[in-house]
């Protein structure tokens, strides 16, 4: 049951990143943090949720998929009013997802040891 909740939360995070990345600039909420930190945080959380929700999935699949997703959203922003694509944002998202997968891997290993 808990795994299903993690999976639902993970896909909710994926959809949220997509929506927030593709709305026009004036409609996007701003946290006040630099954009690259928002990307790191969003992809970090998403990667943790995906890794914990799908523990049997190869980590490289999660990393590659999220990186391609981040790049695709950056490219799509070229066509959205008030948005701009940024390689730095893609790198920040990719870094966040990588760190999220690493943290989730440690969490899973600790959990397995306690079993």
Could you provide a short overview of the structure?
The chain is an all-alpha fold and 115 residues long. The protein has helices at residues 2-22, 35-53, 59-76, 87-114.
Question: Which features characterize this protein?
Answer:
about 120 residues; mainly alpha; 4 helices; single chain
What's the total number of strands? Answer: 0
End-to-end separation: 18 Å
Major sheet size, sense and barrel closure: none
**Helix proportion of residues, in percent?**
over 70%
Alpha-beta content class:
mainly alpha
Average pLDDT confidence is 92
Strand content: under 5%
What Rg, in angstroms, do the CA atoms define?
A: 15 Å
Low-confidence stretches: none
Per DSSP, the total helix count is 4
Q: Please provide the ordered H/E string of secondary-structure elements.
A: HHHH
Q: Using the alpha-carbon principal axes, give the shape.
A: elongated
Please explain how this structure is put together.
The two termini are 18 Å apart. It contains four helices and no strands. Helix 2 (35-53) packs antiparallel against helix 3, helix 2 (35-53) packs parallel to helix 4 and helix 3 (59-76) packs antiparallel against helix 4 (87-114). The protein has helices spanning 2-22, 35-53, 59-76, 87-114. The protein is mostly helical. Helices cover 75% and strands 0% of the residues.
């Amino acid at each position: 049951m808990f795994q299903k909740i993690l999976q639902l939360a993970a896909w909710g995070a994926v959809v949220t990143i997509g929506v927030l990345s593709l709305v026009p600039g004036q409609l996007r909420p701003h946290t006040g943090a630099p954009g690259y930190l928002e990307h790191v945080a969003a992809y970090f959380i998403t990667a943790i949720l995906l890794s914990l929700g799908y523990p049997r999935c190869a980590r490289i699949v999660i990393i590659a998929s999220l990186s391609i997703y981040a790049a695709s959203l950056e490219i799509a922003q070229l066509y959205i009013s008030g948005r701009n694509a940024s390689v730095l944002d893609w790198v920040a998202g990719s870094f966040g997802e990588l760190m999220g997968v690493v943290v989730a891997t440690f969490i899973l290993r600790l959990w397995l040891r306690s079993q």
